[in-house]
């Protein structure tokens, strides 16, 4: 978090943009069905369509985990830094 | 189907069933609070569950026996189209991450037990809250009935009941299973499914792990499995002349695939039973942490879906698609392990059935009984009513399954998914903004419900005249998409437009009893613990 003390912190920060991207990415990947509606290349006999989506279970888990860690970081930096608590608390919600 | 009763498998099944019954009754004494006669205790397990208990409870709750039977059955029947369950469960977790912690906080602060409680508090509208409650109950009932269908499928394959001519002999095993379930839910509340979920998920993971390694080896590897499936799907259906399925969705199926995945993901956490399991967790972070470990279930679901292809390759021939997977287990596994697999499915039905009946009972008690019948009900009275209603709900589901055709339960479950999605704007919208007007929300809800119901009624399939499926042409786009999502979009449009209108004519707003800070409060924050009902505060270990 950048400079903080007296200024009211912005609701949108670079860190939060990254969190949002982590959470949005699975939607883009999974709803874009034509990007993966094919059988080749197969992996161990399993067509692309199936292993690709199962791979995304792992990718989206990793992204959610990153979002969680970043969120904790964001919250900590907001509660520890001195600020007028009311405004930051209201904005801290997502 | 082998002739007669599979004795070994049945023995193993009964063993696990008895073990689970004992656990269910003992659960009443687990983490017992000083004052158990309240809805917080019976219906939310004292709001005390940590990360792991919540993980098992939610997993046991969302991935039901019906899921285990129906997802591979859909793959068995049509191939790729059935796999939408995987992207669906992928999309659920970023959604939960975003909105459920807020619901948890505001519910903890104000003692809300159901989503309708929140909607009433936020918008000050008993009508809107009633609409949400009724939708929840209507959507949950057929879901409970389907859990019974899951148990029936397993019993059928084991040779118990099923074809016997006498209805009483035929349905006796199901009646016994249900009586036991009802008894321990009544006495132990949410603690019973929470404990049993450990057994259920342990068994399921074991069975999937074994199945996904053992069966492909027996069938000659995944190459052989998929080429057998390819061959089957390429053979045209004698009735329609179309191929019966596909390994990867063709262009026409892609809209359906994406809208089903998105619509189902949005709907899942509107279901009362998902919310009940979420609100029983101890803190905000328990929920967020769970979104990072719950996807393990999605992975399992993906593997499980592949069993549908294995059933094709193994030459399983069943008239009722729901029996494909139990039949595959019986054909492939030694008898004793088939028993373990059947027990996993059977117990997999009990956990969600228990939670769903508790959730529906909570809705009735809080948002119909207390709001409209007896406003001064004490916590002890609320708990008592809820316990009784949980029995009524289960008996209702049982009668449903025994007296009506299975397809009726499936049709209603399909409708339930469409209906429950219509509560999304009021609930999730309400968590982030108060801009929506309560009357606009109610009108949007009504439009979504009516359109969804009529559209689903109009879908024909080769076997059914009505409710033949959940997809239909999207008006204005021309592609085939999930009806629930189309209805949801209409719902949102109506809500937004009417809100502008109502704001312009200055229609009176309801009173909002929540404040912005309530949505981020966490356990231990000043003010949160103090304002909880005494029973809950005392039990927070």
UniProtKB/TrEMBL annotation, chain A:
Transmembrane segments: 17-37, 49-68
Keyword Ribonucleoprotein found: no
Alphabetized Pfam families for the sequence: DUF3311 (PF11755)
Keyword Zinc assigned: no
InterPro entries according to UniProt: DUF3311 (IPR021741)
Keywords carried by this UniProt record: Membrane, Transmembrane, Transmembrane helix
Highest taxon, organism lineage: Bacteria
Region ranges (Disordered): 74-94
Listed Polar residues bias regions: 78-94
UniProt-listed PANTHER family: BSL5891 PROTEIN
Name of the protein: Membrane protein
